[in-house]
Design goal:
Elements (H helix, E strand, L loop, with lengths): L2 E2 L7 E2 L4 H9 L13 E3 L12 E2 L7 E8 L7 E3 L2 E10 L4 E17 L14 E3 L6 E10 L3 E11 L3 E11 L27 H4 L3 H4 L12 H6 L4 E6 L9 H14 L5 E6 L1 E3 L5 E3 L1 H7 L9 E5 L5 E6 L4 H9 L6
């Protein structure tokens, strides 16, 4: 896919990140997952063998402490769900100076975060297991993972699966010196995103679901611009997602989750959905300027992303792909009612 941003960004843009494409496999919603760069072993009998693959679901990792999530697909289009997994990390050096893996010696417990609308635990109350996409799908999230230097790193995932045994998988990823995208502690960009009633703009440029539903299904998410909320010192929850055209297929569920939060906490913050595409069917395709301003870096654009922004205009937190609605709700609970 090629992106063209309107106004200030008229040059053709390359495609979405490969991370988003691989992440489809991580939740078993597309074709078989690739095992490239990963290894796996199984503790079960040969007849029960399925190889687990680790896919780093968190993009834009940088030096410092942050949450890291991984998807765990199997090579038969099923996936690992529920319970917990253990993550450990090793430094692999740089492109110029690769090294043998240097383990940090720290192991993190990663808890299962379901895709919104799917179960967060099995009915029998057990732990991690192999499931079909229709049963469950999600990622495993570890908090406060610290990287002390930029370069290439490797995650090793160990999961004890009921009925299968011990599964191990590794995957390499890059850690930058500084985040490429807006990050916690940064000033939020005063974006004038498209809102309801924008003149000369088709409804699907405001929310791609207008294509299939005939109207914008969540008008409460399209009343504020980030710029206006910042001017009024209103806290912000903003989801960048394209529910209809999403590569990772997380966009619809996470946008609906934000809509549900908006219904519960309408008196606490401005809730905003920014559609990625201004014109998906154009040749070349056109991305909305607001999405480009926040997410387009280094010939790449990934989605979905969720951001929370404080009354001082500083980014409080961000989540790539899937987020835990309870984490966002806890932040909203601590906010005073809007005047």
């Amino acid at each position: 896919m090629t992106f063209v941003a309107p106004a200030a960004m008229m040059d053709a843009m390359p495609s979405f990140s490969r991370t988003a494409v691989v992440l489809v496999a991580a939740v078993s919603l597309a074709a078989c997952a690739s095992g490239e760069g990963s290894t796996a072993t199984t503790g079960g009998p040969p007849t029960a063998r399925t190889d687990m693959v680790a896919v780093v679901a968190t993009t834009d990792l940088a030096v410092g402490s942050q949450r890291v999530s991984v998807g765990l697909p199997l090579d038969d289009q099923r996936n690992v769900s529920f319970g917990t997994a253990e993550l450990s990390f090793s430094y692999l050096g740089t492109a110029e100076e690769p090294s043998t893996p240097q383990p940090t010696g720290v192991t993190y417990e990663a808890r299962y975060i379901p895709t919104p609308g799917t179960p967060d635990a099995p009915e029998d109350g057990g732990g991690a297991r192999v499931t079909s996409p229709s049963e469950a799908r999600g990622i495993y999230q570890a908090n406060d993972v610290s990287f002390d230097r930029a370069g290439f790193w490797q995650v090793e995932v160990v999961a004890e699966l009921e009925g299968t045994g011990t599964q191990r998988a590794t995957s390499a990823f890059e850690v930058l010196e500084e985040p490429a995208l807006p990050a916690p502690g940064d000033e939020a960009l005063p974006t004038r995103n498209l809102t309801l009633g924008a003149k000369g703009v088709p409804e699907e440029a405001i929310d791609s679901r207008a294509v299939t539903e005939g109207e914008i299904p969540d008008p409460e998410l399209h009343r504020w611009t980030i710029a206006e909320a910042l001017r009024q010192h209103v806290p912000i929850v903003v989801i960048f997602a394209t529910p209809v055209y999403c590569v990772s297929r997380f966009c619809g569920p996470v946008t609906e989750a934000v809509e549900e939060l908006a219904a519960r906490y309408e008196d606490r913050a401005a809730f905003i959905h920014i559609e990625i595409w201004r014109d998906f069917n154009a040749q070349p395709q056109v991305v909305n300027q607001a999405a480009a301003d926040w997410l387009y870096r280094n010939d790449d654009l990934t989605e979905p992303w969720l951001y929370t922004i404080g009354t001082d205009g500083i980014i409080v937190d961000r989540w790539a792909s899937v987020f835990d609605t309870a984490e966002v709700a806890a932040w909203l609970d601590d906010l005073p009612p809007l005047p």
